[in-house]
Design goal:
This protein is an alpha/beta fold. It is built from 13 helices and 25 strands.
Length: 506
């Protein structure tokens, strides 16, 4: 690969452009820097901070909903005592990762990528970014494009249309846009929703509100887990973080995968056990059947994790309550329900979900042809049919996100090694079975998935085209399996052209 020798502030041509400085983009940067030290790369980040989700969301109690020894990177052991960590602790971990590995010099903040076009004749991408400070365009070129943009819209969350919302005299807040100055001390708060955000907000706010109510249309599975893992903390003390990390990580992966498989193979049994776990933590005559018994089977949607049963403790103490009903309309003083009950509120929080967005709203084109994402098929859940020199990272929905990101980054580096060793300039997945059934790339019944999945690439049902949320299968395919197969078309690298003086970023 060509190595650019000009300074970072002048360089606009790279071997790899990484889009997004969240947990996926930082992981990709680490793998390139350590596995391929001769590869030039830059990370374009639209905002002014690393961290992605973890720097964007500022609502009370924001925390991981996966255990941190597996949500953290494989290459950097998680050393904090809490296995379920608060957002600011995760941000500290990401800042440490960037600093310890010299990644900051590769990150360019305030560059929001709008479009990217691949030229087969040049064997390169031309990427157009808008600079947040000036609004001016900046052009970059790269041999490969790596997208670490996640799968939801950073600019807007999802809020249903509520009748009468303009009549409400209080404040309506979406967790994705939490005001820094919101004072809810002594206030009556209603949180609309029953997902991970709602079950985080309610216990986190309960001590300061006069009362907080979680208003849900239907219940979710809520699973209590320890905030600290005694086994992990003991092992870290005895063996040291590096040696303990491998054991803890393997144990947590096996446990998470075991629970998921049990839910799929014996849904009725797991449903009984999960609801019994909730019943055990609430007052004797609490209406668990109404408020904590979902209509769907476990893991058709994500399980909502609550550390140390904090939600159940807030309910048991009388600081919080759950109401299961439908909203008729907002009123000047709260929410009128279809049952006729009215919930008084000073603040209403719409924890009603995310808006899914494929590939960060970046318009892709190949040789002047716009790429219509639903027409493409994911290859090894990391590349797209008909799109050369392109890799994306989307993590798991049923286990820690970062486990998949690590595997994708490893395989990407192996792919680059293979191409260099064989003199290849481009690689393109080509769908070799047009009659193969194509299915949604994410198979979950959650509302946010069902609303947005039609915009995304599809998955196949056989071979490397399948997308399975199964870590052990991806280890076999991405870490241990061969790079080349019949679905990939490689072309030779073009002769090197003497480097010209790089253009300054416009």
């Amino acid at each position: 690969m060509t190595i650019t020798t000009t300074s970072q502030t002048q360089t606009t041509d790279f071997d790899v452009l990484i889009i997004g400085a969240g947990i996926s983009g930082i992981g990709a940067a680490y793998h390139l820097r350590t596995r391929r030290p001769g590869t030039s790369f830059a990370v374009l980040e639209g905002r002014d901070s690393i961290g992605g989700t973890w720097s964007l969301f500022r609502y009370p109690g924001i925390r991981s909903d996966s255990d941190m020894p597996t949500f953290g990177y494989n290459f950097k052991p998680w050393t904090h005592r809490k296995a379920i960590a608060d957002g600011h602790v995760i941000m500290d971990y990401l800042h440490q990762t960037v600093t310890e590995n010299g990644l900051a010099e590769h990150i360019r903040f305030g560059h929001r990528v709008r479009s990217a076009e691949f030229s087969s004749s040049d064997g390169k991408w031309t990427v157009t970014a808008e600079h947040s400070g000036t609004g001016e365009e900046a052009l970059f070129t790269a041999r490969f494009l790596f997208l670490g943009t996640g799968y939801y819209d950073y600019e807007s969350g999802f809020t249903p249309e509520f009748a009468g919302v303009e009549d409400f005299a209080g404040q309506v807040v979406h967790p994705q846009h939490w005001p820094d100055d919101l004072d809810y001390t002594g206030k009556r708060v209603v949180v609309i929703g029953s997902g991970a955000t709602a079950v985080t907000l309610v216990p986190s706010m309960a001590d300061r509100t006069s009362h907080i109510t979680m208003l849900q249309r239907s219940p979710s599975y809520v699973f209590s887990i320890p905030a600290e893992d005694p086994f992990a903390n003991t092992l870290n003390r005895l063996l040291g973080h590096d040696r303990a990390h491998r054991i803890i990580r393997r144990k947590n992966i096996m446990l998470s995968r075991g629970i998921f498989k049990a839910c799929k193979r014996a849904p009725n049994l797991m449903r009984t056990l999960l609801i019994a776990n909730v019943r055990r933590q609430l007052p004797k005559h609490y209406d668990v059947d109404t408020h904590f018994t979902p209509r769907y089977n476990p893991w058709e949607q994500r399980l909502c994790m609550v550390p140390n049963g904090d939600l159940f403790k807030a309910i048991s103490a009388g600081k919080a309550s759950v109401v299961t009903d439908r909203i008729a309309r907002f009123t000047p003083t709260g929410i009128l329900l279809e049952s006729g009950q009215e919930l008084a509120a000073d603040i209403i929080v719409t924890a009603t979900g995310l808006t899914m967005l494929p590939l960060g709203r970046i318009a892709l084109a190949v040789d002047g042809r716009q790429v219509h994402l639903p027409d493409t098929t994911a290859y090894k859940a990391m590349m797209l049919s008909g799109v050369p020199n392109f890799v994306f990272a989307v993590g798991y929905t049923n286990i820690s996100w970062t486990l998949k990101v690590d595997l994708v980054c490893e395989h990407f580096c192996r792919l680059l090694d293979y191409m260099d060793a064989h003199g290849h300039g481009t690689v393109e997945p080509v769908l070799d079975d047009p009659a193969m059934d194509r299915v949604p790339i994410i198979d979950m019944q959650a509302g946010y998935v069902q609303r947005g999945i039609a915009q995304f690439p599809r998955a196949g049902t056989t071979g490397p085209w399948s997308v399975e949320m199964a870590y052990e299968k991806d280890v076999e395919r991405l870490r241990e399996g061969p790079v080349a197969d019949g679905a990939l078309t490689f072309t030779s690298a073009k002769p090197a052209v003497p480097a010209s003086r790089p253009k300054a970023t416009r």
